[in-house]
Amino acid sequence: AQSVAQPEDQVNVAEGNPLTVKCTYSVSGNPYLFWYVQYPNRGLQFLLKYITGDNLVKGSYGFEAEFNKSQTSFHLKKPSALVSDSALYFCAVRANSGYSTLTFGKGTMLLVSP
Amino acid sequence: SAVISQKPSRDICQRGTSLTIQCQVDSQVTMMFWYRQQPGQSLTLIATANQGSEATYESGFVIDKFPISRPNLTFSTLTVSNMSPEDSSIYLCSVEASWGGYNEQFFGPGTRLTVL
Questions:
Q1: E strands present in A39-100
Q2: How high does pLDDT run on average in chain A?
Q3: How far is Cα B110 from Cα B20, in angstroms, rounded to an integer?
Q4: B79-103, pLDDT tens digit by residue?
Q5: Given pLDDT bands bounded at 50, 70 and 90, which one contains residue A64?
Q6: Is A29 strand, coil or helix?
Q7: Which chain B residue has its CA at the smallest distance from A35's CA?
Q8: b/e sequence A70-79, b meaning 16+ C-beta within 10 Å
Q9: For tag attachment on chain B, is the N or C end more exposed, with fewer CB atoms within 10 Å?
Q10: Do B20 and B11 form a contact (C-beta atoms < 8 A)?
Q11: How sure is the predictor about A40, in pLDDT bands with cuts at 50, 70 and 90?
């Protein structure tokens, strides 16, 4: 069975500082990896994905994530955090072969202080 | 991409009643999904709904409690039956659509359900 771990319930950073939201995964075979963001009272918005190719993936709003196969990780990063980045972030995985549905992590709340 | 709308956006219901949530997509899609997000929890897949076939339910979810309709390629409904306070959640519709050469999953805004 596939699974996603987001070890931090909450990440606090000051505006302008770099941020990292951690994600590790387990899946049979090669993974498709995703990050979604959920603002209060809103649905999920897609941020970025890793399918194949470069391990560093760039996405929306200046976010990026690095796929590390040996560590089975896909940490979300941003060089300079904004207060408006404060939201709930979900990492998700699916297998890249056969029929597979998305499995989500429990989410990490990012709080960026002014 | 795909734009998804859900109705209602929120509702407060009494125990023992049922609520039907509608999901409308702006393009034809084969695969639609229904998720539940309980307070403070992650998303849990309830079922996959493909047009022209019975919905496939995940472990822990049954058709009697969460009947799903998929009458065409742009629309689906999820009914939460005989509700209890434990059913208070956000229910999200999701579709798989082609975007940038890859089948990607898009999410609706969700329906926030409170059961008293």
A1: 44-50, 56-58, 64-68, 73-78, 87-95
A2: 92
A3: 13
A4: 999 999 999 999 999 998 776 666 7
A5: very high
A6: coil
A7: B105
A8: eebbbbbebe
A9: C
A10: no
A11: confident
pLDDT at A30: 86
Whole-number pLDDT of residue B99: 66
* Among the partner residues A36, A42, A101, nearest to B48 by beta-carbon distance: A101
| pLDDT at site A98 | 64
- Taking alpha carbons only, the member of B37, B64, B34 closest to residue B46 is B34
Structure tokens at B88: 């208070």
The single residue listed with the structure tokens 């709003």 is: A61
Q: Which residues on chain A are in Cβ contact (under 8 Å) with B48?
A: 101
Interface of A with B (CB under 8 A): 34, 36, 41-46, 49, 51, 90, 101-102, 104-107
Question: Which residues of chain B approach chain A closer than 8 Å at the C-beta?
Answer: 4, 33, 41-43, 45, 48, 92, 102, 104-110, 112
Q: Is B109 buried (19+), middle (13-18) or exposed (0-12) by CB count in 10 A?
A: middle
| Band of residue B15 on the pLDDT scale cut at 50, 70, 90 | very high
Token pair of B66 as six digits: 């969460």
